[in-house]
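Entry 12.
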Amino acid sequence: MVYGGYVLGALMLVGACLAWRRRRWGMLLGLVAAVVNRLLTVPGIAFALAIGWQIASAVGVLLATLLVVVLPAPASRRADA
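Predicted 3D structure (tokens):
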């Protein structure tokens, strides 16, 4: 499970770099990685053993949701056009 987090983090980083360079497939890669990250993090909110892990899972879900909402927005693609 830990290695999956590293892979998702790397995919999101690559997607962010490519979206920064205005590559459409970079944006799609970032979106897919954010959605997968969100789906894998949601169970941690309810089933984590410590409150700290539950809070970390909730923050992860909120950040992934923010990426899913902001990344495809037209204003974010025209930001420095």
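Annotation: The first helix runs from residue 2 to 20. The mean pLDDT is 80.
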